[in-house]
Amino acid sequence: MRSVRARAAAGAMVVVAVALIGAGIAVLLVLRANLTDQAGLQAEVAAREVAGQLALDVPYGRLDLPDVEEHPVQVTDGDGRLVAASKELEAVSGTGTDRVTPNASPTPGSSGSGSGSDDDGSGDRHGGDDHRDDDANTPARGEVSTDDPDFTNGTATVDGDTADYRFAAVSATTSTGVTLTVHAGAPLATEQKAVGSVRAAMLIGLPVMLLVVAAVTWLVTRRALRPVEGIRAEMAAITASEDLSRRVPEPGSRDEIARLARTTNETLTALEASVGRQRRFVADASHELRSPIASLRTQLEVGEAHPELLDLRGAVADTVRLQALAADLLLLARLDAGERPGNTPVDLGALVHEEVLQRTGDRIPVAMSVPESGHLEVTGSRGQLARVIGNLLDNAERHAESSVAVSVFRDHGSVVVAVTDDGAGVPEPERERVFERFVRLDDARSRDEGGAGLGLPIARDVAHRHGGTLTATRAAEGGARFALRLPGTESSPSGD
Known about the structure:
By secondary structure, the chain is an alpha+beta fold. The protein has helices at 4-55, 189-241, 256-305, 312-336, 348-358, 382-399, 442-447, 455-465; strands at 73-76, 82-85, 89-93, 143-144, 150-158, 161-173, 179-187, 344-347, 366-369, 377-380, 404-411, 414-421, 469-474, 480-487.
């Protein structure tokens, strides 16, 4: 199933089917148990009625037995012999015995077979009423067991029809101490009919319910996923047209799909901006590379035709410019690819000191202000941070009139490197634009001696990847002030 709607409908059907089947089985079990208990109660009542008669020594032949179809009855003695049974009972199972014809025994009050009276049937066998016991006029009584009866399931055949019954076994003791067991049954037809009806209704209703659930789930899912299909169709159109200015429709709801649409549009906006930057980067890089390459080619062609006119120094300068531009482009490519800085502790004071000492060919000497106490450590890439400091110093050298200064200090847990010059400075509206790639202000462009407008963008990218900032402001001398602010290490004191 490749469709979300189909999977949702199938899943809903499975869940509902499992729930309904489980609930249906539970209902059937409870219903069957209740109806079976009711049948057992009816059987117990019938058995206790017969047991009460036995306790009163009613002869077996004179027992008042219930209707055989409603309550088939068997009476057995302590040896398991059948002594009484319903007359029309043809077969039985699940009771004490499967016999339906009782053994001859005239009365439950006698301990054995035979008559309970004298041979002549007149009076006491010891000679008349004068010698009877004083309590002869008070008949003796037995008792019926008050224990819970034993229940079993079985069958009984009456008039050729066999049906299921619930049997209850109740014990009774006669006045002479004879123990008898009465097995009385109650039909389970009502239970079977009710359970069958409920089961049939469930079997009919379950498929109908599953179809309704599947249809409702399908419709609800289709309605819910309709905006997703709109987003997909628009994304497919954007992919086909390569027009990143288009946006997917945003539904008016505030659910996950609306958030998906907004996130998709934000992604498209970021992608459009990224592609735009990439295109401008390629165009600017091509433009910047064209000039030194054309100049170098011209010089080499002139040198080939007229060796005496070859400007070797200019060719070397163009080659160095190409090398620096290629290095800048490579570093930008690595930064754009997400290269992360290292976790090496770097002492910015020492690093600035080293960078300034290496600049022996600067047009204007660099004045340093680095505290001797140290504690100016940050975490990051020493090479990339050295590149930032070098780029800031190069920028200051190109624009300064007579002075360039660099200072390092701590400020509220951060380490700050400030590079200032006394040049024309950066106009306030341009203080963010100078950090864009290949951007050079008009006055800088006229005085540029090889810069491609990548130094400051590289410096800011490196600063951001180190968790810091790089900003341009006006210096006290009137020129530009570039401040690199990086988080200091925890081992360093908070300082100033």
